[in-house]
Amino acid sequence: MKRTIKNKIVNSLVLSIIGGICLLSACFDDYSNEYYQDNNTYNDEAYRPFIHFTPQKYWMNDPNGMIYLDGEYHFFYQHNPYRSFWGYMSWGHAVSKDLIHWEHLPVAILADKSGDIFSGSSVIDKDNTAGFGANAMVAIYTSSGARQNQALAYSLDKGRTFTKYEGNPVLTDPNIIDFRDPKVFWHEASQKWIMSLATTQTITFYGSKNLKEWEKLSEFGEGIGAHGGVWECPDLFPLIHNGQTKWILLVSINPGAPNGGSGTQYFIGDFDGITFEADVLPYPLWLDYGKDNYAGVTWNNIPDSDGRRILVGWMSNWEYAETVPTMTWRNGGTLPRVLTLKSHPDGYPILASEFVAELDGIGEEWATLSNSGETYQLEVGNKAYQLEMNMLIPALNVATVTLSNDANEEFVITIDRNAGEFKTDRTESGRTNFSGNFPAVSIAPLNVNTENIVLSVIVDNNSVEAIINGGMVQQTNLIFPQKLYDAIHISGASSHSLKLRKFNSIH
Ligand code: FRU
């Protein structure tokens, strides 16, 4: 009896009840039931990415509690510490000094008899508003048991150990079943903590002076944006655009993404400490049009001297997350991205994403590739790499960029200036048969109106991340080829130049 993801929340209730009973009888660690068996034999490590975050072992979904403190980026994540399937959800934990190399730490917050530890955020309580201690790291998460409630755990040792607050839960609602994924930040102007919470198909904002008592401020989302599935994992933060502060609201939705399954939409507007009011824009707008960038949230507490808004997403999709062909570890993070607002050719603002500059730290020198034809053999050996293509694509042209290997596996990127589309095709990308939803063509709007197209692509063992013109549109897609792609063929551009850099492995 293999569970489908669609009923994972219901199963969470069941698991929590079983978990509760088993915790009492210390039997929960026995995963001998059929659900946890996978009869496939996978050469897992063949797909372990060279430069992306993956859990050392077992299952991962959403990034959680992203926070920077004293030189460390903390990356907590939805984690099953026992198996490579969703279940017994806890917060895994890793830290990094550069957003690229990750040190794995013990599980930070373990499922308990109140339920699974679902997604959430963390803050540094510098003024000790909650009374746990000045500068406590406070995690605000959803405790998912018989119901979904919001709860706190705090750490006084930079995230190494957490204590669950004895007064949990801190926010409940008897009427809302899908009531989860609190993202909290300190709102200086109104001198209070603001929580964005996913409430079925809206985002509800709550305010608090002390993280323990919350009052409802407002609710956003009815009749606007995409509603093809449940709303999850919100994030609300400001960005400056043309000298003006705008507020961005990220909302992950599953299913209902533009190319199927899970995806993240966003809204741009104003937030006054109580209400988020969206600007009139052509919603839904999507953070990423690939199939594998979900539940992304941004780091809290990045110093003003840095000032970046940095996001990492879960590089998978609930359509097939439990069947991707790896078992010792399952699913990981996207490369971290810096978010900014840029102007769409039609004049309205859009959320742009670029790879973090920290990648330079593992990048070898850029090499310009030249060739008389259109096919280049890439001397990449066993390393992840980045290609940057400057292409001249006249208004009615369709250019294609094909990445391939000698096992006849390929990943095709199309830039169709006639249709104004940016497409990826992974139907022949390698192993695809583990899910009918995996072999896909994903279509994005091109979001630029120029013949000068810059395509930046990072290829790793199990992913292709492609960004157009400095982040105007992006696609993140998983792949499972037998070998790294090591050839590129470019056609349909009236001219192009190509450069390549390899990355040293982070392991
Ligand atoms: C999103 C999500 C969240 C929930 C978590 C459970 O992928 O469904 O809404 O908190 O996963 O693992």
UniProtKB/TrEMBL annotation:
GO terms for molecular function: sucrose alpha-glucosidase activity. Gene3D superfamilies: Exo-inulinase, domain 1, Glycosyl hydrolase domain, family 43. Residues 1-26 form the signal peptide. GO terms for biological process: sucrose catabolic process. Keywords: Glycosidase, Hydrolase, Signal. Transmembrane segments: none annotated. This is Glycoside hydrolase family 32 protein. The lineage of its organism: Bacteria, Pseudomonadati, Bacteroidota, Bacteroidia, Bacteroidales.
